[in-house]
Design goal:
Number of domains: 2
Largest sheet: 5 strands, mixed
Strand order of the largest sheet: 1-2-3-4-5
Strand content: 5-15%
CATH topology of the largest domain: Globin-like
Number of helices: 10
Order of helices and strands: HHHHHHEEHEHEHEH
Length: 291
């Protein structure tokens, strides 16, 4: 998307555009109220309170007229993104945002028709200039809203994945990565990224990946686990995989995964003991301790 000026048509009279903008500003209160009434009549933005509706419609109206005057949509883009950040979490949909902008376009067009209906040549020139600009504004708001909505969705998805695959430091140079739930290709990719960041941050030498809570692993994910092991080794960390179910073990054998690259231990406790051995820790029993 570019910030090129909105085409405003061919104005033989340089005073026509200022007159148009001056009219929309002079009638701002009445036109904004008419627009708000039409929004309510169309049952849009019902998640907003009346006070919020008044604030937002005033801001949109002022930005709209400013774009008509200056020809630049940059300010409108910034406002559309800010508005999206506020209303997307409240469940406002894209069709509602597009709907209110189209309603404003129509309200203003009707106002221009009323003003210039006795001078049809001027009215045609005004509408020829207004309609392309209004359509460009509607498109700008819609695109900005969709882009922000997609960004929020991606951010939420990333947060959910991070919560579902935490990299936990257990002790110095030792990390645990418990995997719970379905491990698809996208989640496996993010798992690798988080794990490598964790290895670098904690200067880990051993990582225990526990897949006890993973119900199944397909060929793509299994091969991704192998690549994760290789990448971790390049970062200076050994990987121990624990919690292999009989079904997953059979899958790994069936699809021909190179098991020589995997250090597997039956359960998490055994994996931790092996990790401590690799780190050089020795578990000793104190005299008089009971089992």
């Amino acid at each position: 998307m570019t910030d090129d000026p909105v085409p405003v048509g061919s104005y033989a009279d340089d005073q026509l555009l200022p007159q148009l903008v001056a009219h929309l500003r002079e009638k701002r209160g009445r036109l904004r109220q008419e627009w708000a009434a039409r929004i309510q009549g169309a049952h849009l933005l019902q998640a907003m309170t009346p006070q919020e509706m008044a604030t937002e419609t005033t801001s949109v109206y002022d930005n709209y007229v400013e774009v008509l005057e200056t020809g630049s949509v940059e300010a409108l883009q910034h406002y559309a993104r800010d508005l999206s950040e506020r209303i997307i979490p409240r469940g406002v949909e894209t069709n509602e945002v597009v709907g209110i902008v189209l309603l404003l376009r129509d309200v203003l067009a009707r106002s221009l028709f009323e003003k210039y209906q006795q001078d049809m040549p001027t009215l045609y020139r005004v509408l020829d200039a207004y309609e392309p600009a209004a359509n460009r504004i509607a498109n700008t708001v819609a695109v900005s809203f969709v882009e922000e909505r997609e960004r929020v969705i991606r951010q939420q998805q990333d947060s959910i994945r991070e919560l579902s695959t935490p990299v936990l430091p257990v002790r110095e140079r030792l990390l645990i990565l418990p995997i719970i739930g379905v491990l698809d290709t996208e989640r496996a990719r993010q798992l690798t990224e988080q794990l490598l960041r964790g290895i670098r941050t904690h200067r880990a030498r051993v990582v225990v990946i526990d897949i006890t809570g993973a119900p199944a692993v397909d060929a793509a994910v299994a091969n991704h686990l192998v690549r994760t092991v290789d990448a971790s080794r390049l970062m200076g960390a050994s990987v121990i995989i624990t919690g292999l179910s009989p079904e997953i073990a059979q899958t790994l054998v069936t699809i021909g995964v190179d098991l020589s690259k995997m250090n597997t231990i039956g359960d998490l406790q055994g994996g931790l003991e092996e990790a401590e051995r690799l780190l050089g820790f020795v578990v000793t029993r104190q005299e008089g301790a009971t089992s």
